[in-house]
Amino acid sequence: MSGMHLNKQTISHLKNLFSNSHSLMPSAYILSPNPPPVGQHSRFRLAIQLATISSLKVCWRKDPKLDQAIDNDKKWRLCARVVKEVLNEPGQVIPLRYLEKRRERLRLNFKITTFLNKNPGLFDKYLDRIKPKSELVPFLRMSERLRIFLEEEKRINLQNEPLIVAKLCKLLMMSKDRVVSAHKLFHVKREFGFPNDFLVNLVPKYPQYFRLVGSPEEEKSFLELISWDPKFAKSVIEQRAEDESSLTGVRVRPSFNVKLPPGVFLKKEMREWLRDWTELPFISPYEDASHLDQASREMEKRTVGIFHELLSLSLFKRIPIPILGKFSEEFRFSNAFSSAFTRHSGIFYLSLKGGIKTAVLREAYKDDELIDRDPLLEITDKFIQLLGEGHRERAEQLRILKNMEAVAMKNR
User: Fold this and answer.
1) Rounded to two decimals, what is the model's pTM?
2) What is the SS3 assignment for 21?
3) Which of 125-134, 177-186, 317-326, 401-410 has the lowest mean pLDDT?
4) Is the pLDDT of residue 345 over 80?
5) Is the backbone of residue 354 left (phi > 0), alpha (psi -120 to 50) or beta?
6) 158 FRET partner, CA 20 to 30 A, in 123, 276, 354, 394?
7) For residue 29, what pLDDT band results from cuts at 50, 70 and 90?
8) Cα torsion through 223, 228, 229, 230, rounded to 10
9) How many of the other CB atoms lie within 10 Å of CB of 227?
């Protein structure tokens, strides 16, 4: 089937689904059988397209393995939030009782002292005064291990700076006017692996690509693309097709990898719409889409391409829907854009884990394991390694303590 990359099982499944299918009467015609006046043809056509696409329903089905992939990150993300809270303080130190008061904001369900006992090696505890003549109280500061990790983080970011620059360029090149709010970019830095100081220290190093309008601290500042570099204007899907063509010597059309989840059944209306949709040529997310009708199948194809590219550029190949929604204007997403993730459930998975809708790129995972790994994930690996060292030390301390207690009981 052209326009998509399908495995044998999926092809067989779709063939069975497509058999005995007939042409579909658009729902807009059913609702309004009388032909419209001549002057209203364009508006009527738009109504048909809106009704046809918006009425296509695919039942959401839970994917326990992809949900587990999200759940696997909970522990280290919690630790990262606490570390960030301390490092954002003046002098990167904080009274222990101040941090205790922020537990709810940090989504910490137990006391800070319990957190410190469970995760040794992150902070050093010491006594100091909040005010010159006040009593001594416990403070926290980064440990030597955490300091070494932060140095490693800087090294990895510097080593991967070309990748970070490419990601920034690609985000701007996909946007409507090649301009994106700097404030929004700052708040999605974690999703794409941008350093905390990328607007202040990285962007000014590349004046051939970027211009920052306004101060990074202001919500009304913008990052603008100065020059269009063709080497960045190639999507993951187009690059994959090009690589396959070079390998096989046969021209391969850019197409989505599609793997229908087990147990998914598409209704006749959806089958026929999907069959026609897959035959449409792939539309690069870097192409100018200003001429496309917002409600057309072609625009849907491009929007799915943008979602695929955004998820591919992200660190974990998944992004919460609320974060994607912040860029609706820049990337021309419709108000109901999130329905595309269930409509194209062979490409994406819409997780509801933790009460937050998260778009996941299926092809990037094997069961609950991320197989399409971003080079910047080395930072996450180093942080998890740091936590692991502390956990092993705590386990050893508990083992020694238990042995001492056993010896003491025996000598009584």
Assistant:
1) 0.82
2) coil
3) 401-410
4) yes
5) left
6) 123
7) very low
8) 130
9) 10
